[in-house]
Amino acid sequence: MRIIWLDALRHGLQVLAFCCVVAVFTTLVWPSGGYPRQLVYSVCIGGLTWLVIEFGRLLVPREHCHRNPERQGHGWPRGWRGLLLTAIGITVGFFAGTRLAAWLLGDTAHMPQRDLRMALVVTIAAGVVASFYFHTRGRQSALQAHIASAERDAALARLMLLQSQLEPHMLFNTLANLRVLIGLDPAAAQQMLDRLGDYLRATLGGSRAALHPLADEFERLRDYLELIAVRMGPRLAWRLDLPDALRSAKLPPLLLQPLVENAIRHGLEPEVAGGSVQVSARTTADGSRLALQVRNSGTPLTTPLPQTDARLGRSFGLAQVRERLQTLYGDQATFELIADSAGQTCANIVIPLQ
Amino acid sequence: MTAPRALIAEDEPLLAQALRQALAEAWPELVIAATVGDGFSAAREALALRPEVLFFDIRMPGQSGLDAAAELFDAWPRESPLPLLVFTTAYDQYAVQAFEAQAVDYLLKPIQHARLEKSIQKLRQTLAAKAPAAIDDEATLQRLRQLLAVPGLAAGAGGTPPRLAVLQASSGSTIRMVPVAEVLYFEAADKYVRVLTATHEYLIRTPLKELAAQLDPQEFWQVHRGTLVRIGGVEAAHRDEAGRLFLQLRERPERLAVSRLYAPLFKAM
Question: Which residues of chain A have a CB within 8 Å of the CB of B14?
């Protein structure tokens, strides 16, 4: 239980201002006593009501309260607990507040029944209005905080995606190769630089479009594989298989990229002899769906994925592919990572043909 | 003094060629004894050729540069001084931090001439000062041992994986549950790891490295590249006439060899 004094002070001042307004109204009803007299009553009743509610809610166990998102404090009690607290606050505020005000002003005479009833109505009305105000304010700020945290999460996810696509190790090794090629074979260096430019442009800008043609996707994979081929030399054999009929079929941009990267990183790179990667697209037997496959030789898939891979991004890459498919296609898409009969690792994606 | 010789281990052919050329310019008298493209050949060739200087890439096929160094230092003949080691890496925050901490020489790819020359200068000084009598191999081994213990570098494990309490070893069609508390030592054997308790032997497929990351390092000590031993189950460490160290266990008859890299762990308090 932690009291945030700054919040309490802010609420108290708001209540005070509200009491001043209520006093104006009650002065109109009972003009005889004048404004100062009504203000004393109003502040006593309003202030006690507020004190009971502000600190009374700290007695309600935290699990029954709304979350106070920005800070760690106690939120508004949920459901009937909130209503009960308001009722108790108003009752205590009314009876104790009128006594306190009467004592302060030296009033000895009892209020007439009619005035008492009227005062009760005013107190209840004011109490309900003020409680409702604080309640909505609290909910609004909770909602805003929720939106802000969702935006933060989305930004973080985008950053992680970018980081996984622009793997520093790959980037710096490519630069190191470029540095050598500039002296050795300037024409090849230029070609490699162009590939790198296309790859970076696609990576940095590609995630914005929702869908792009398969022909573009394969072109980006070609850029990537050409870059890796310079680095790995004869250790890498690769093939891209895209039938002409499917060139304009749509898919989310760079969907296959993390799968090809995993194939290289975890399948081929650890092998002294290297290996091969094939990416292919075809329609399913009934012609309504698009089947994409990334197949690689090399180090076989281990289940469960070893601990080491978590850091190196294999699981992040796979989780990201799964998440994108789920968001875009729901149950219409399937994704599996298996070892086929020839011992090769296959990542299979099936999505609706668009 | 004869011309110093070097071994380059780098899996990317262009980068290997570039390093060879840069060395030829900056250190003309250095002889490149061989260039290899994977971690296994690196250790094998280094032992066969016994060069004075090694340039090892960290991320290589087969095994990492760090593991290759550990393997060859273990098998390096005691009468000759250990070679000087320079690691190369494209980008690896773990590696760079660890190298800085251990004062191990390293080169970042793309390798810049100024940086390479600084490194060469240091290597030359060390080689010149290295009289055969004054061998500071102990410090080199100590540094390498420290590097191998850096999580995320040699073991490749990120963060701290959960501790293992029970091993699941298959024997035929049943899976045997083996409490880690009963294990006396683990021994790497080809594609398996042998798990030995006082009375039984089991085989599991999890690599020793991955296993080590999930065990309490206070409880299980690495005493050899392929051996993790429950230190509480060790009766004594004996040194033979050739200076090799062996562990004698309380509950098992075998004697376990302690490699050169880990021998300094055993000393009287």
Answer: 177, 180-181, 184, 230-231, 233
Confidence (pLDDT) at A127: 85
Q: Are residues B73 and B172 both part of a single domain?
A: no
A294 within 8 A of A275, measured Cβ to Cβ: no
Domain final residue pick, B148, B180, B205 = B148
Q: Does the N-terminal peptide bond of residue A243 adopt cis geometry, omega within 30 degrees of 0?
A: no
If you average pLDDT over residues B231-258, what whole number do you get?
A: 91
Helices (H), B130-244: 137-149, 208-213
Q: Containing H/E element for B46?
A: helix B39-49
Query: Residue A272: which of B38, B108, B213 has the nearest Cβ?
Result: B38
Q: Does B243 touch chain A (CB under 8 A)?
A: no
What is the per-residue pLDDT across A218-228, written as a single tens digit (0 to 9) for each? Answer: 999 999 999 99
Residue B269: band (very low, low, confident or very high) from pLDDT cuts 50, 70, 90: confident
pLDDT over threshold 90, residue B46: yes
Write the CATH number for B222. 2.40.50.1020
Q: Are residues B116 and B177 located together in one domain of the fold?
A: no
My answer on whether B14 and B119 are in the same domain is yes
The CATH number linked to B122 is: 3.40.50.2300
CA nearest A260: which of A227, A306, A233?
A227
Q: Compare all CA atoms of chain B with the CA of A233 and give the residue at the minimum distance.
A: B13
**Searching chain B, which residue's CA lies closest to the CA of residue A181?**
B14
Q: Report the distance separating Cα A96 and Cα A93, nearest Å.
A: 6
Cα gap A92→B67, rounded to integer Å: 76
* Residue of chain B with shortest Cα separation from A180: B18
Partner B contacted by A185 (CB < 8 A): no
Using the Cβ of A303 and the Cβ atoms of chain B, whether some distance falls under 8 Å is answered with no
Which range of residues forms the domain containing residue B89?
A: 5-148
Looking at the fold, whether B123 and B182 belong to one and the same domain comes out as: no
**Chain A interface mutation, best of B12, B60, B168, highest count of A Cβ atoms under 10 Å:** B12
pLDDT tens for B12-29 read 999 999 999 999 999 999
Contact residues, A window 186-245, toward B, CB-based 8 Å cutoff: 230-233, 235
Q: What pLDDT, in 10s, does the model give residues B119-148?
A: 999 899 888 876 554 456 777 888 888 888
Asked if A270 has any chain B CB less than 8 Å from its own CB, the reply is: yes
Domain count, chain B: 2
Is B12 in contact with A231 (Cβ distance < 8 A)?
yes
How distant is the Cα of A79 from the closest Cα of chain B, in angstroms?
A: 41
Which residues touch A160 (CB under 8 Å, ≥6 apart)? Answer: A316, A320
Q: What confidence score (pLDDT) does residue B260 get?
A: 85
A67: pLDDT strictly greater than 70: no
The larger pLDDT score, comparing residue A301 to residue A89, is at A89
Q: Are B39 and B9 in contact (CB under 8 A)?
A: yes
B9 φ, ψ to 5°?
-115, 110
Nearest beta carbon to residue A181 from set B14, B40, B109: B14
| Lowest-pLDDT range of A54-63, A239-248, A266-275, B167-176 | A54-63
